[in-house]
Write a structure and sequence with these properties.
The chain is α/β, with parallel strands linked by helices. It has 11 helices and 15 strands. The longest helix has 22 residues.
Length: 392
């Protein structure tokens, strides 16, 4: 008898949502992969997926749903579209709230595009609070960033398992807008289960291989009218806003249910089916299921020798509900724990970036079933015990 399939509790790409294989097969069998991307059927699929995402995530009708290649591309489109270059007189900076690798990436993207970008930092493994997050860094150049043109935040930091709670994100967004800033939030590991309000955001983006449980290769950027207008003003002032693909072009095409370039129509169609499946469950039920499973995983870690969460129990509100990051209580390598889990049929990830071998990251995305996550929870203390015994 063949072994059971691996439980892929990975932070992305992760386990496929159960509807993905049949939805993908249906799309291929029906010839969708060969449809003209400006044709009526392509526009219907794009419109249908947009409708499902609006219903699931509460996206306002006047916000554009833009299809890209990845979340990192979304960062590039945003920074290029609404931030002037460093050489522009009186250029206002972006302010990046950085407490992990993916928020740092947005900062690096802006700087690589020669845009003025500042960082407000918190220790790794922490979220942000609404009271202090928007303070301009003390080492910022004189006059820089006051007020910022753009405030950027990663709501759920996949690299550390930390989050900024949705209520805090909403408060931060209101405060930032009150300062005259646009607001961009990375929701790659937050949506669809985190109830961040997109009506308060000018840019909300994700890629599909995490919370939506799909193959990689598609990113989604939800853009407010103000974001698109900022790009339009920048272009009107003779400043660059991108190359062939820019926010203004993307938004103009989206109003006709089209894309700027030939899209991955198969994945766009599958995304619509996954969104419909989540919508059938209901957003509140989905969030409650992730919350309960996250608590169960943390309880399992308390029974695991030599393991501790990167985000401690004392910071409960700042602990991700979709990513559990663990480290060795003695700073030891956790490769033996990962191997022990793999031998039990559970695939988890190492840490991210420097020191990756000393951490484990376990996904709790809604594409994983409750039964699979129960097996993961049972396997954590067993794997830790085996690894601890082998180290003695």
């Amino acid at each position: 008898m063949p072994p059971p399939p691996l439980i892929r509790a990975l932070p992305g790409p992760t386990a496929l949502h159960p509807v993905v294989p049949s939805a993908l097969q249906e799309a291929v069998s029906s010839g969708l992969g060969s449809e003209p991307h400006r044709g009526a059927r392509a526009r219907r699929e794009i419109a249908s997926t947009a409708e499902a995402l609006r219903a699931l995530l509460g996206i306002p009708e006047d916000h554009h749903i833009l299809h890209l290649g990845s979340a990192t591309e979304a960062m590039e489109r945003i920074a290029a579209g609404v931030l002037p270059t460093l050489r522009t007189p009186g250029a206002r900076s972006s302010l990046h709230l950085v407490a992990g690798a993916f928020a740092q990436r947005f900062l690096q993207v802006a700087r690589a595009l020669d845009r003025p970008a500042l960082a407000s930092r918190r220790p790794e493994g922490r979220g942000f609070d609404a009271r202090t997050a928007l303070e301009i860094p003390p080492d910022a150049p004189r006059g820089a960033g006051e007020p910022p043109a753009l405030v950027a935040l990663c709501q759920n930091e996949t690299s550390t398992g930390a989050r900024t709670p949705p209520t805090v994100v909403d408060t931060l967004a209101r405060r930032a807008r009150g300062l005259g800033a646009l607001v961009a939030v990375d929701l790659v590991s937050g949506w669809p289960s985190e109830s961040v309000d997109p009506s308060l955001l000018d840019a909300a983006f994700f890629s599909v291989q995490k919370g939506f449980g799909m193959p990689a290769g598609l990113g989604v950027l939800v853009a407010s009218p103000a974001l698109v207008e900022a790009a339009r003003r920048q272009r009107g002032a003779g400043l660059p806003i991108g190359g062939w693909i820019d926010l203004e072009v993307l938004a103009r095409r989206a109003t006709r249910h089209e894309t700027a370039v030939t899209p991955n129509l198969l994945l766009i169609a599958v995304l619509g089916r996954v969104a419909e499946a989540y919508l059938e469950e209901g957003r509140e039920a989905l969030a409650a299921r992730m919350e309960a499973r996250a608590r169960h995983l943390r309880d399992a870690v308390r029974r695991a020798p030599l393991l501790r969460p990167v985000v401690p129990d004392s910071l409960e509100a700042e602990r991700s509900r979709t990513i559990l990051a663990l480290e060795g209580s003695r700073g030891q390598s956790l490769a033996p724990v990962r191997q022990a889990l793999l031998e039990e049929g559970i695939q988890v990830a190492a840490g991210y970036g420097e020191g990756a071998d000393a951490r484990i990251r376990i996904a709790n995305y809604p594409s994983l079933s409750d039964a699979e996550m129960e097996t993961v929870a049972e396997g954590i203390p067993k794997a830790a015990e085996r690894a601890a015994g082998g180290a003695e």
